[in-house]
Amino acid sequence: MELPIYVPGLPARKMRTILFTFGLITLVFLLFSDVESWLSTLFCSQPLILSVDVRAHNLRTRSVPKRHLFPIKLGSTISPNSKVLLLKSSSTSKDSSTIRAALQAQRISFISLAPDRFQLLPSFLSSAPSAGPVNLIIFEQFLLWTKLPPEYKAAIDNYCQKFGVGVIGFLLDEDLLIRQSESFMKLSTYPLLLRRLHSAPSGFYLAAESPVLNISRGGQYDPATLSPHSLFPQRVSVKCRSNYSRQLATTQLIAQRFSNDLPDYDSVLRRQRRSCDYEKPPACCLATLVPSPGFTEYFQTVAFTKLSPIDSALSPHDDLHSVSRHSCAFADLPQQQNYNPNEQYQSLVIEDVGGIDGIKRVLFAYGASSHWSVHLLLMDAVRYLLSSVPRKEPLKALEFDIGYNRWVHVDIDDIFVANPDSQLYPSDVKALLAVQREWRKMIPGFTFSLGFSGGHYGHGSAIGRRGDAELLRNRNACELSRGINRRMQPDAVHNLPIQEGYAVAPHHSGVYPVLPSLFKAWKEVWRINVTTTEGYPRLFPAWNRRGFAYDGIQVIPRQTCGVYTQTLRLKDYSGGPHRLQEMALGGEVFQTLLYTPVSFFMTHFGNYGQDRLATYVLSGAFRFLLAWTHLQLRTGSPEFLTQQHLAFHRRTEAPTSASAGLPLMSNPCADRRHAEIWPPSNPCDPDLLPSAIIGGPQKTGTTALLTFMAAHPNLVANHIRSQGTFEEPQFFSNNHIYAKGVAWYFDQFPRTPEELARLNKSFGERQLIRFEKSATYFDSFLAPDRVLALLSSRAKLIFLLKDPLQRAYSCRLLLPLRVNADCHLVRQSKMQTTWCLRSALRYGMVRLQEEIDEEQKYSPRLSPERGRRTKILLKVFCPHDHQRSHREEAALHFTFAEVLRASGPEQAASLVRQQRLASGGDAGTNNSSSALAARLLALNRRCLQPGTYAPFIDQWLLRFPPHQILLLDADQLVSAPAVLMDRVQEFLNVESYVNYSTLFQFNERKRFFCLSGGPYPAAGRLLHWDQESGLWCLSRNKGRSYPPLMPTEDDKRIFQRPMQDLYQLILQRQFWRPRNSTSVLDIIPPWLQRWIRPVGS
């Protein structure tokens, strides 16, 4: 019998004291000895490894005989301004979102159509559609093609055959397509069968012979069973919850009681017949594609799988059992020991080479969101079909050729941060260096970039400080970049290698949303040239992250790998370990590497301790990418990688681009992450932004419309300044102004009660609608995207349309006279002559260079800035005169009328020959004549472009729905402004209706309408008190009557096509119309109808 331990004479209290003392000594010993370091080495040195089992196979698929290959039509060409047409099976679906994401990640322009818009197919597939030619068609559900109305199906087939356009299609929901009693389904008259599999096949194989594969590495396979799983988390519907059946029974019982008492009662309760199984992720690879008998040689396998023994067995009860054993692959070494002649392989992805009907197709036997391979194979299929037919011009559906190199940079942030859970032990540092050596086998020259905040150095626990010391001993093995949070200089003390010019802000604060003062400080104080951010334009989706340039600093998009500051152990990962594995093996991290030429990955110090999840994910993603693709991983310094990044984004993110590389600025309050790092002192209330914009175009009466709208008590216009751009903010069209940032734009509108009171706007009593007017927005290709980013697609747009011929006539002939009159008055009043130029800028007028030269005689000290801005206006409004002032050869040799007649290469060459003969020269063709003809043609396009409305409206329609665009007749603003203002009020849905017919009075002396009543402080200096009439009128330079203009035959020929395009655009798109409108003709201006009427007569 065992006896309890007892020490005679030792009290229990003293015993507890001894035990406590012993425990305390033991704890101190552990903290200040190598025991803990030894334990950390023992238990933490074995890293987790993500298994990547991809092997090479020796199977060879059947090759298509040359006689069945589709003959290429050398005469078939498609315009380089190409688009992909995506035909969706429903308005919203997961599969269409996956396809859209894949196209957007490759910067591919596309148009998507839901079934309710299929009636637009004939216009999209015409030989010269307004939205741009289509050179690839993708079906979210390929069965849509088989079930289309005959005229739509014929339109698609004829277009594809005529222009060599390829088709990509997905076949999904095989459980719904094929009845339980059958194993095959015929795709209408198309000679391909969809076979249902009764059990999961094993192995995903890429064919070694397929010409579709480019980036994909053919001849590889994964032997794992293709279980039905998705890359997306499983949704849990209310119908799949455990208590749903009981709740449903109770609800049905209550409904039955009502129906017994009320015979006419009909419950709205409906139970779907489909079980909750449909809420599970879509199944992958439970169907294969088998060519119909006699058509095997017309198809080439791209990817295939090995059938299970059950599906490989012959089914005598199936009417198509003769093809059930068709195999797309066979072993080239049948004598090898492991060869099994009973193994059957069938296609998962197949290519129709075009021998059947002249159309090349790539078809998938599974949905777009069912398997990781869709992103890889879709990328190859798109490029293959886009480049399968030779074209006369380079194909531009792809913004850039992404190539085979992927540049990788890995940042480790928060080095030396003394968080007990995230600090590194010495063994972790050794493991980090071992990983770096291992990665250099995959990425030559790879080195981790360690970002540190000096203020945290030396503040960790004893074992953490040992880890820091181990890192310092190996300081030459890594590169360090300074953080800007608690910045001190341990690099100077410990001689650390520092990457100059590169740094990352804490939480990316100030990078985006942009704070101009912060960028200025970075450049002047720390001489930073490169930084990164993950928040532009938003954190998710990852493929949509972009970079930009601002104030001399290049911002590169930063990528995440699924692990963050608090992601330390695999068992605690949100979504489970399977989710993290999925991200690396075909998921988000893999797709980032696939689609992004240059990737700056963000990781944290703690991700390399504990379970070392950063190396776990990235190692798996790197090995998976190299196993399945021909891509090569590369690395370099931040400055070098910045240049590589800009090589792919030169047109959008470089400082030399048309947008100056500036980011699209969004409302910081619209994104929670952005709002958290936005300074509280800066406004970001969306109600303070304009909900309507008068977008132009210039010389159509936009200033008058702004003035009349500002007189409305519910409408609040932007501040009308006395300098700069005057009544126009021009925020979205002017790079210099846009760079001032969102906070500056907020300041352009009155927002405080005091400001509104000064403008006679009652704050809080009425619904105030803010708006702004900038006529430069209409023809700016930058403005639509910028307006959409900041104001969202709910913004309303107002465009004034004027007869382009009358507009050009008034600009070309009459405005210089008006400016001369203004300048004459200025001289009489002995004011500085530069005010004449300022007056021209103020009224949006154009001055010929001869008049500017005349002005120099009166004022030799003409302000260079005034002269520069005048020349800018000259260039915008009258490019012919502007080019004459710059001694442009084409403008010097030809009159304005001749420039207008040079509408094509032949016409331009003919005019050059005539000019040579008239000047006594040789009319023969030579290099100088060809160059002059090219300049003449370019000048013609610059002169005519401002008067072509349809292309510019099309650009806005790509971002805004047509029912939010108001088209107004500029002539009506002069003849019947009250009627026009009624339309504006209805369009904006103002709270208080103003009867403008009682405010407008016609001024006989000025010959245009003025406002009675007043004063109107909100209109600022735009309205002037006319003492003689007692009315508030526009300035005397507004509303002048022009002599009548009769278009010549040349004018009709030049402007006829732009008029027809505008007419057709208004007819086809559902622009906003007033409630009393009975026909779309009600919004077509009379001057446009006059241009069109002779065509139909």
Automatic annotation (TrEMBL):
It is a single-pass type II membrane protein. Residues 82-227 form the Heparan sulfate-N-deacetylase N-terminal domain. The active site is at K699 (for sulfotransferase activity). Its EC number is 2.8.2.8. GO terms for biological process: heparan sulfate proteoglycan biosynthetic process; heparin proteoglycan biosynthetic process. One of its GO terms (cellular component) is Golgi membrane. Pathway: Glycan metabolism; heparin biosynthesis; Glycan metabolism; heparan sulfate biosynthesis. Keywords: Disulfide bond, Glycoprotein, Golgi apparatus, Hydrolase, Membrane, Multifunctional enzyme, Signal-anchor, Transferase, Transmembrane, Transmembrane helix. Residues 692-810, 938-1011 form the Sulfotransferase domain. Residues 486-590 form the Heparan sulphate-N-deacetylase deacetylase domain. 3'-phosphoadenylyl sulfate binds at S810. It is found in: Golgi apparatus membrane. InterPro entries: Heparan_SO4_deacetylase_dom, HSNSD_N, NST/OST, P-loop_NTPase, Sulfotransferase_dom. One of its GO terms (molecular function) is heparan sulfate N-sulfotransferase activity. Belongs to the sulfotransferase 1 family. NDST subfamily. PANTHER family: BIFUNCTIONAL HEPARAN SULFATE N-DEACETYLASE_N-SULFOTRANSFERASE (PTHR10605:SF56), HEPARAN SULFATE SULFOTRANSFERASE (PTHR10605). This is [heparan sulfate]-glucosamine N-sulfotransferase. It comes from Schistocephalus solidus (Tapeworm).
